[in-house]
């Protein structure tokens, strides 16, 4: 059971757990041979994986930023459209209110003139 745990840890080259685990005990021949085979495969595959796409993470981040920028621009445009529509509704409401106040002022002045005329008679 210990050998299988140790072999699983050997698949990660240069990991701190591989270097420190089991240093107090003597390894069996099969564990030593498995360790050397695993580490040789890891050394062969390690550089190939790292040199395959050195800027892959950076490219992915750039694409994510571009998508975020497009999304933010879309939301900004949507927000600006909503603001413009709201401003137009507010202006319309104030124009209607102003018109009604002017109409009421005219009605009150006519009623005042009528009351004055009636009082004079």
Give a description of the structure.
Helix 1 packs parallel to helix 3. The radius of gyration is 41 Å and the shape is rod-shaped. The longest helix has 65 residues, at 56-120. The model is unreliable at 1-10 and 12-22 (pLDDT under 50). The chain has helices at 2-10, 16-20, 29-52, 56-120. With 121 residues, the chain is mainly α. The protein has 4 helices and no strands.
Tags for this entry?
about 120 residues; mainly alpha; disordered N terminus
Brief summary of the model shown:
The protein has 121 residues and is mainly alpha-helical. It contains four helices and no strands.
Rg measurement, Å: 41 Å
Number of helical regions: 4
| Helicity, as a percent range | over 70%
Extract low-pLDDT stretches. Answer: 1-10, 12-22
Shape: rod-shaped
Rounded average pLDDT:
76
Distance between the first and last residues' Cα: 120 Å
What profile does the largest beta sheet have?
none
Strand percent estimate: under 5%
Give the SSE layout:
Elements: H1 2-10, H2 16-20, H3 29-52, H4 56-120
Helix pairs in contact: 1-3
